[in-house]
């Protein structure tokens, strides 16, 4: 079969049929795209855009999380309240005794809110309520001349005057209590 003369007539007709161009029609592209979408082989451009948008949002969230985590471990004291120039102790001395345990709970909640306000400003503010009485050392006896402490707070302030101004806002004073203010001297 080196030339066309050696082909049989049936083979020639089949070969000639291959040379003809098949015209799919003017809307072939549109029909093909529609059928591919209908059968799930293609996604609509709107669905693809939504998927890409969602994927970009997830990628951005992962990147920002990683950056935050990296910065949080890299920065010294990240997440800690900033330390002002000094720390001060507020010693809460007796005032009006609450009429009931519910009143005492209300005072504790109010004092806690005062401390949270300071922390929202980036300052140190921590404190505790103290139980009444207790032995005095070295004798181990309760001594009446020592004033009872109802509680304490440790705060940060830029100066003794700023600490005094902060102590004056403590709600303990509104209930007839007194506050002794002492600067904490670092020993390390």
Task: Describe this protein's structure.
- The chain has 188 residues and is an alpha+beta fold.
- 43% of the residues lie in helices and 14% in strands.
- It is built from five helices and four strands.
- The protein has helices spanning 9-19, 28-38, 45-74, 101-120, 160-167; strands at 86-93, 125-129, 151-157, 178-184.
- It is rod-shaped, with a radius of gyration of 41 Å.
- The model has no long low-confidence stretch (mean pLDDT 79).
Supply the key terms.
rod-shaped, 14% strand, 188 residues, 5 helices, four-stranded antiparallel sheet, alpha+beta, 43% helix
Round the mean pLDDT to the nearest integer and report it.
Answer: 79
Helix content: 40-55%
Oligomeric status: single chain
Shape: rod-shaped
Structural class: alpha+beta
Residues in β-strands, percent: 5-15%
Low-confidence stretches: none
Rg over C-alpha atoms, rounded to the nearest angstrom: 41 Å
Distance between the termini: 103 Å
Q: What can be said about the biggest beta sheet?
A: 4 strands, antiparallel
Produce the secondary structure layout:
Elements: H1 9-19, H2 28-38, H3 45-74, E1 86-93, H4 101-120, E2 125-129, E3 151-157, H5 160-167, E4 178-184
Antiparallel strand pairs: 1-3, 1-4, 2-3
Task: Explain briefly what this protein structure is.
Helices cover 43% and strands 14% of the residues.
């Amino acid at each position: 079969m080196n030339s066309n003369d050696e082909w049989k007539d049936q083979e020639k007709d089949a070969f000639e049929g291959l040379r003809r161009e098949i015209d799919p029609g003017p809307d072939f592209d549109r029909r093909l795209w529609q059928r591919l979408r209908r059968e799930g082989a293609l996604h609509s451009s709107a669905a693809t855009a939504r998927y890409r948008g969602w994927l970009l949002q997830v990628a951005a969230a992962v990147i920002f999380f990683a950056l935050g985590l990296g910065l949080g471990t890299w920065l010294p004291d990240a997440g800690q309240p900033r330390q002002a120039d000094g720390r001060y102790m507020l010693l809460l001395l007796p005032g009006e005794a609450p009429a009931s345990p519910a009143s005492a709970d209300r005072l504790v909640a109010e004092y806690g809110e005062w401390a949270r306000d300071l922390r929202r400003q980036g300052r140190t503010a921590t404190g505790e309520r103290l139980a009444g009485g207790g032995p005095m050392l070295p004798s181990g006896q309760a001594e009446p001349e020592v004033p009872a402490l109802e509680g304490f707070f440790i705060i940060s302030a830029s100066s003794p005057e700023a600490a005094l101004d902060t102590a004056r806002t403590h709600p303990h004073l509104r209930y007839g209590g007194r506050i002794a203010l002492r600067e904490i001297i670092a020993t390390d």
